[in-house]
């Protein structure tokens, strides 16, 4: 047990840690700009991947040097993060020198600052199937000292089912954003599994959502950069400079696969999970693939 790890707290009905709630007033009063692009995800759904894709779409041609010199977490502020001595996510967003701003958040839909809705901002949401998402989250929490103590795999899985994770229940998160998409047309709801299966098609669809006329040649270059192995070897995207991550425990870009859950769930855990899943997802039209 590491006593320096933060504890889970109940925050307006959602499990959180203080590093995502201590700057709450500034987060809630954040002033969005109409061309801001929000990347919203449940943790470990492929956030870094989509942030990097968006960054390349907007800035690869005009400022290629930043790809070699600025880590992705400095190019795409994490809105609700407050982790002294580093600048807060809101301050980073307020002082970003480039435009449009790409802003990352893991907030459930009800917590997104209202200014983003008022400014009619574009939002890119990425969802990942629950089984791979929880496996990735487990390995991440083992290596990230800024997260609560993960415990063993089976207790972690139970906590995930109970929604006792940082940023709350996966079920509420993916369904909440899905419901919002039915009434707010500027949400582009993507799936990690589709990105793995056909990154090129997803990139093309993303460009149409963003109203970008990126050439095929440019898209090809971007596709090259965002391959798993290329991102893993790139110090600007593999988070190797992030001091809170213990790379002797796991990797940030760990496997990048659909279906790794099969290496973690026992037969009994899988059956119980499927039963729980059926109940929790019975009122939504949202569907996931757990293999491709
Ligand atoms: P795994 O732990 O299953 O490997 P986030 O950025 O939201 O924290 O998500 C991290 C997960 O996205 C990790 O999953 C990571 O490997 C995966 N990922 C990141 N870049 C990827 C890429 N280019 N291709 C496939 N998966 C990627």
TrEMBL record:
Question: Which UniProt keywords are given for this protein, alphabetically ordered?
Answer: Catecholamine metabolism, Cytoplasm, Transferase
Q: Name one GO biological process term.
A: xenobiotic metabolic process
Give the Enzyme Commission number.
2.8.2.-
* Location(s), subcellular: Cytoplasm
Q: Does the keyword Cytoplasm apply?
A: yes
Q: Which domain of life is it from?
A: Eukaryota
**What are the protein's GO molecular function terms?**
sulfotransferase activity
EC top class named in words: transferase
Return the GO cellular component terms, semicolon-separated.
Answer: cytoplasm
Q: Provide the primary localization.
A: cytoplasm
What region holds the Sulfotransferase domain?
A: 34-284
Q: Does the keyword Cytoplasm apply?
A: yes
The family classification in the record reads:
Belongs to the sulfotransferase 1 family.
Concerning PANTHER family, the annotation shows: SULFOTRANSFERASE SULT
Q: What is this protein called?
A: Sulfotransferase
From which source organism is this entry?
A: Pangasianodon hypophthalmus
């Amino acid at each position: 047990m590491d006593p320096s790890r933060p504890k889970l707290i109940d925050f307006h009905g959602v499990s959180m840690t203080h590093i995502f709630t201590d700057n709450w007033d500034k987060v809630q009063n954040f002033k969005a700009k109409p061309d801001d692009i929000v990347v919203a995800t449940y943790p470990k759904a492929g956030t870094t991947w989509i942030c990097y894709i968006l960054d390349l779409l907007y800035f690869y041609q005009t400022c290629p040097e930043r790809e070699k010199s600025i880590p992705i977490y400095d190019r795409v502020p994490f809105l609700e993060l407050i982790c002294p001595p580093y600048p807060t996510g809101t301050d980073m967003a307020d002082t970003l020198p480039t435009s449009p701003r790409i802003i990352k958040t893991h907030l459930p839909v009800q917590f997104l600052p209202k200014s983003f809705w008022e400014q009619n901002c574009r939002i890119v949401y990425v969802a990942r199937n629950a089984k791979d998402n929880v496996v990735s989250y487990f390995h991440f929490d083992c290596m990230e000292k800024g997260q609560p103590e993960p415990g063993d795999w089976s207790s972690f899985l139970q906590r995930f089912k109970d929604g006792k994770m940082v940023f709350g229940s996966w079920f509420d998160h993916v369904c909440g954003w899905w419901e919002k998409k039915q009434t707010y047309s500027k949400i582009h709801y993507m799936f990690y599994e589709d990105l793995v299966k056909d990154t090129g098609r997803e990139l093309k669809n993303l460009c149409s959502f963003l109203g970008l006329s990126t050439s095929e040649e440019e898209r090809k270059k971007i596709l090259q950069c965002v391959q798993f192995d290329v991102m893993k070897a790139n110090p600007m995207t593999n988070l190797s400079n992030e001091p809170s991550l213990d790379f002797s425990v796991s990797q940030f870009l760990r496997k990048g696969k659909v279906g790794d859950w099969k290496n973690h769930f026992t037969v009994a855990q899988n059956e119980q999970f499927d039963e729980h899943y059926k109940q929790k997802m019975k009122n939504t039209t949202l569907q996931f693939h757990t293999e491709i």
